[in-house]
Amino acid sequence: MTITIxxxxxxxxEAAKQMRLQxxxxxxxxxxxxxxxxxxxxxxxxDTLIAITxxxxxxxxxxxxxxFAYNENELQQMQETLQQIAxxxxxxxxxxxxxxxxxxxxxxxxxxxxxxxxxxxxxxxMAFDDIEQEHQPQAMYWLAEHGVKRILMHGGPLSESIxxxxxxxxxxxxxxxxxxxxxxxxxxxxxxxxxxxxxLGVHEVHGSQIV
Length: 211
Fold this sequence. Notes:
alpha/beta; globular; 10 strands; 8-stranded parallel β-sheet; two-stranded antiparallel ribbon; single chain
């Protein structure tokens, strides 16, 4: 399966430019990649959107490290971040809310509606892996029905090699509706991406060393 999209996770405009030069054709913009990626600051968003104009820039909306169960103040902060991204000219965002190993349907619905009202396309990030595996198909179908374009997943704990989680990702790839993309990530590199994409039958891959 030929890779058509190599999405590079970066935490600066300079890194975004470098990854683009090396062949990345989609950017996921974060701060603090060592914490799994948090919301980037305004200056970084502006500089990256100025620097990268020919491929999509997906902007992380994650107010803090740790779990993905956010309180009311944090949810308000995330809504304000979505507004700011839209005001700055962003078009793509990624977020995820998981509480007690279940997709938080109420909070996700709130943020998805807010994003779509701002003409932002929505991706769910690797918080999806925190959902109990038996409930992941239901969550995937719900996300697809609510206009989420992609789900980034590792298929299990990041402490496990992706070679050990491929079978679970494969199950979800096989079950996924046509209008949502399963995006494997976590441990993918320029060296192993083609092998993993071929094994899964996917065209898109994600990583901080994907090119």
